[in-house]
Amino acid sequence: MQGESDSDLTSERYAHYLSALIEAINDDLQSGQYSVPWVAARSSYNKGAVFDGPRDGVDAVVRLGLAQLGPDTDLLGPEFREADNLHFNANGTRAAAALWTKVLMGGLYSE
């Protein structure tokens, strides 16, 4: 879950960077005979605005089959943020954890 600091990236650039990261880590893990599922959140909230680049970039990576779609933490507005209107406050951290729990327990690991 990240994207706030990349709010200025286009969806293509964000998808490129995220895909490259996932593929590089997967290559390292596979050489060690490990495999992990990837889950990517829509997370672009920065100072009261959300940004299409990171959000659409995550969607592109999901369409490529490199990750499953995680929660939309952009739904957690200013009441869930610190004074910087970016990072989660205590209530935001709990709310984000609840969103992640719903996604992860909703089938990804229940097989």
Mean pLDDT score: 90
Computed Rg: 15 Å
The number of strands is 2
Q: Kindly, what is the distance between the CA atoms of the first and last residues, rounded to a whole number of angstroms?
A: 23 Å
Portion in beta strands? 5-15%
The helix/strand order is: HEHEH
Number of helices: 3
Major sheet size, sense and barrel closure = 2 strands, parallel
Number of domains: 1
What would you note in describing this structure?
This protein is mostly helical and 111 residues long. It has one domain (4-108). Helix content is 47%, strand content 8%. The protein is built from three helices and two strands, in the order αβαβα. α2 links the parallel β1 and β2. The protein is globular. The mean pLDDT is 90.
Secondary structure layout:
Elements: H1 11-31, E1 39-42, H2 52-63, E2 68-72, H3 90-108
Parallel strand pairs: 1-2
Helix pairs in contact: 1-2
Defining key terms:
single chain; mainly alpha; 3 helices; 2 strands
Give a quick precis of the structure.
The protein is mainly alpha-helical.
